[in-house]
Amino acid sequence: MKRRQFTKLALLGGGLAPLLPACQSLAKLQASPTAPAHLSKAEAEAMSRQAHEAFMGLNGDDFKMMGEEHIAMLLYPGFAALDLVGPQYLFASMMGAKIYLISPADDLKPVTSGEGLVIVPTHTPSECPETLDIFFVPGGANGTLEAMKNAKLIDFIARRAASSTYVTSVCTGSLLLGKAGLLKGKKATSHWTMLELLPEFGAIPVKQRVVWDGKLITGGGVTAGIDFGLQIVAALRGKTYAEAIQLQAEYDPVPPYDSGSPEKAEPFVRDNIKGIFSPLAEKFRLAI
Questions:
Q1: Is 171 a residue of the active site?
Q2: Which is deepest, 80, 174, 212, 288, by most CB within 10 Å?
Q3: pTM here?
Q4: How large is the average pLDDT for residues 65-78?
Q5: In the chain, where does the domain assigned CATH 3.40.50.880 lie?
Q6: Which of 171, 198, 217, 222 is catalytic?
C-alpha cells in the first residue's frame, strides 16, 4: 500500500489511527505553557500522518503494519458473545486482515448468542476460503452442547482445521475442536468448569489462560479471549503491533474483585459455581 493511501485510510478511522506516537506528541504539546488549547484540523492531520509514518518505518522482523490474513470465525446458535467479540476486535484491528463470520447453515440469517446478542454472518460455510491463517471457534453453554451434536458442523470444523495455519478456540469452543478429533495428544485449555473433560478427547488439559501446541491455540474461559487474541496478533504482526492494539483498546484490567479463577475465588463462590455447571458438564460428557 502506498503511504498516501495508508494515511488516508488511517485518517478515516481504520487500523492504528489513535495510537501511541500521536498520544505522546499531543501530551507534550498540551503540557507546554505556550501550547494552544486545541489543535487545528491541519495540525491534527499532520500529527496523525507523522505517527503513522513512524509505525510504517518499523516494518521488519518484529513489526508488520499491513497483512492479508484470512480469518474465519464460526457462529452457531447459543455461542458465547464475548468469546467471539473480544478476539474479533483484535483481529479486525490488523490492517489488511480479512475476517469471515461463518454461518452455521447455508444462509446468512442472523445468529443469536446465548446472551441474546445477534450477529449477522458474512459468509456461508461453502463461501469460507479453503485455506485460512486462523480458524476460530467460540464456546458457550447449551448452544455448544447442541453444536456438538451437529455432525455437519463438526465435519466443517474438521475440514477447515486441516487447511488452516492456526486452529483456535476460546472457552468451551475447545470441546467442539475435540469433537472434531483435533485435540488428540495436544495440550489444550477450556473454561475451568469443563477442563476435566479434555482428556475424554485425548487432550492434555492445562490450566492456563492461553495454551499453544503447534498449530493449536486454545484460550480459557470467556475473557481469556482478549489475552488469546493479543498473543495471536503478536505472532502474526509482532510484539509492537500487539502492544499498540492493546493500548488502542485500553486493555489494562484492574478487576474490582479478585475472584476470576477457582484458585482465587472464595470457596463458597467456587464450589457453588462448580455445582451450577455440573449438569452441563455431564451433558457434555455424554455428547463426547
A1: yes
A2: 174
A3: 0.85
A4: 96
A5: 70-246
A6: 171
